[in-house]
Structures are given as structure tokens and as C-alpha cells.
Design brief:
Length: 93
């Protein structure tokens, strides 16, 4: 059986980056609350940079996970494609 690889879908990667940005925003809200309730004196500009780094990192993480997932599924070799069943489920059969 010949495997026809699906094309790379950049729209899904953008959605994953958007979801990552939302998660990053939630993390920055938590981080801001945490920093406000500590006795540490952190300049406002550093907090802004820190928030930007957290959001950018979450966006990069989301987009890279989706990109790798799509590349795995479009690989022509069977061993690179993600398996729907785990080894444990295969042993039970």
C-alpha cells in the first residue's frame, strides 16, 4: 500500500501558536501576581520583557509541536509516523 503524504498546513501551525500565546498570557498573569506578592523589587521594564519572553516562548512551543506533528504524519517511512495505538494496546491484541 502506497502512502500519500498530506501537505503541510501552515494555518494549523498558526492556530497552535495562537493557543500557545493564550497559554503564555495566562502564565504571565500568574507570574505578575506572584511577583507582586513577593518583597522583590523588579523594575517595570524588566517585567515587560519577561512577559514578552514568556509569551513568545509559549508561541514558539505551540507552533513547533504542531509542525513536528505534521512532519511526522507526512513522513513516507512508517516508523516516523505517529502511532495511534500504544505498545501496550498492541500486546493485548
Amino acid at each position: 500500500m502506497k502512502y500519500a503524504p498530506s501537505g503541510f498546513n501552515g494555518f494549523k501551525v498558526l492556530w497552535a501558536a495562537l493557543i500557545g500565546a493564550c497559554i503564555g498570557i495566562i502564565l504571565t498573569i500568574f507570574l505578575g501576581t506572584f511577583v507582586r506578592n513577593t518583597p522583590a523589587e523588579i523594575p517595570r521594564t524588566r517585567l515587560i520583557y519577561l512577559r514578552g519572553v514568556v509569551i513568545a516562548s509559549a508561541m514558539l512551543f505551540g507552533s513547533s509541536v504542531e509542525s513536528i506533528r505534521q512532519l511526522q504524519e507526512s513522513a513516507p517511512e512508517q516508523e516516523y509516523r505517529s502511532q495511534k495505538t500504544t505498545e501496550r494496546q498492541q500486546r493485548r491484541r
